[in-house]
Amino acid sequence: MKTRAIAFILSLPLLISLIGLSGCSVYRVDIQQGNEITASMIEKLEIGMSQRAVTRVLGFPLISDPFHKDRWDYFFYKREGSTGKTTQTLATLIFSSGKLVTVDQNIVK
Known about the structure:
This protein has 109 residues and is an alpha+beta fold. It contains three helices and five strands. It has helices at residues 2-21, 39-43, 51-58; strands at residues 31-34, 63-64, 71-79, 86-96, 99-108. The longest helix has 20 residues, at 2-21.
């Protein structure tokens, strides 16, 4: 009886590796971080908009820099679990006296 148990325990790694090679795939979740920013959202921004109006369009910025209160950074990252495809978007908005002065957007696929 003990020899059967030992043989079974020793064959478990082989059995597990065969199951892994048989085409069973592991489910991978999509990873999404930050504020999703689309081109249509950026098109709605206009130079001279107030900070409040910008938050209605884009939401609150992901990064608040206490040393640069007039700079808002919106970062978005998404990795699809099934394909591994990544998309990154960074939008930097610069304000002066509470009004939008500059919009810089960078999309990396």
